[in-house]
Amino acid sequence: MIEYRAFRNYDPPEILRLWEQAELGHGAAQSLSNDLSFDMVNYSQTYFDRHGLILAVDDGLPVGFVHAGFGCSADGNSLDDSTGVICAVVVHPNYRRQGIGRELVSRAETYLKGKGATQILAGSSRKTDPFYFGLYGGAQPAGFLQSDESAAPFFTSQGYEATGRYAITSRQMSDRDPVHFRTTIIRRKWELVLVDHPDPCSWWWMCRYGRLDAVYCVLVPKAGEAPPVAGVTIVGLDAYANSWNEQAIGLVDLWVDEKYRRQRFGQALLLEVIKRLRKETVTRLTANVEDNDVAARKVFESVGFSKIDEGVVFKSSSV
Fold first, then answer.
1. Residue-wise pLDDT tens digits, 258-291
2. Residue 200: is the preceding peptide bond cis (ω within 30°)?
3. What pLDDT, on a 0 to 100 scale, did the predictor assign at position 38?
4. Is the overall model pTM greater than 0.90, yes or no?
5. CB within 8 A of 206, min separation 6: which ones?
6. What b/e sequence results for 174-188 when a residue is b if at least 16 CB atoms lie within 10 Å of its CB, and e otherwise?
């Protein structure tokens, strides 16, 4: 008989085993270690709650788990208990189609509602990614991936509806860079500056990228002092090195000051980042872009990024 219980301190090796055996697709990091991956971004978070990580156990052996948490406030400096997030649902292939996944989700929903959630999302994304960043979907989670073939049918069958879509994009460092007159002029007058973190820096940013190998990049004028006009965070995807067999970098939170939009400053910033990364051993760049963010999608496409997968965030219709 399957039993359900909250996380215990001796569970991490079994949870990692389930993750590795679950056939989660190309977007899930594999060949991981607990101390350098799961522990760092999941269990050691100050807001980790063992009751939000629920295991299904058969005769003492974990055969599935669900992990639920909460998004952050608008300013990124505290949790938002009104927005619950189901970050991961994993059931061993030999135990599927037995109602285990359905029961795990039901128990996760009960946990989230009990903590005050008035809406429940399935699939992490920007500001609703308490766990598994850098382990699923790249540097910034973007819902459940199309390459994770069982995810969408499962959540649809549970009464969840798609509420947001993301393009998972990528380019090789060896690809040729585009040349444009306007961009060339910008790159002559503006330069890339690397700093440890944004200023001001939110608690949520530090919970994520402060734990990963991340650097914040801004575009500033070479002459005189002036505030940055564009910026992006670059994140090392070390957890994917074994499964992808290459060194990848994720680009997240691209922004361009409103006064400088549609003038190729975003393209200039990304080309300067690519130029800098060519000095390293990086072979691939990735970026996840929300479908309705047309401007960002065009900027990444302009420097050679193309869509390789799709992510979907689902929302419960019963809350």
1. 999 999 999 999 999 999 999 988 999 999 999 9
2. yes
3. 85
4. yes
5. 197
6. eeeeeeeeebeebbe
Structure tokens at 284: 């691939």
Q: Name residue, tokens 């940055």.
A: 228
Q: Which domains does the chain have, with CATH numbers?
A: 2-165+312-316 (3.40.630.30), 171-311 (3.40.630.30)
Contact (CB, 8 A) for 253 and 244: no
In Å, how far are 176, 186, 274, 275 from 303, measured between CA atoms? 9, 15, 9, 12
Quote the CA–CA distance of 11 and 4 in Å, as a whole number. 13
Tokens matching residue 147: 């390459």
* Residue carrying structure tokens 């065009």: 298
Would you place residue 35 in the very low, low, confident or very high pLDDT band (cuts 50, 70, 90)?
Answer: low
Give every CB contact of residue 97 below 8 A, 6+ residues apart in sequence: none
Please, which residues bridge with residue 6 across strands? 54
**In the numeric block, which tokens belong to residue 169?**
């994009």
Exposure of 78 in the CB half-sphere (CA atoms within 13 A): 3
- Report the pLDDT value the prediction gives residue 36, as an integer from 0 to 100: 65
Q: Which residue has the tokens 């629920």?
A: 54
CA distances (Å), 77 to each of 49, 117, 202, in order?
18, 18, 6
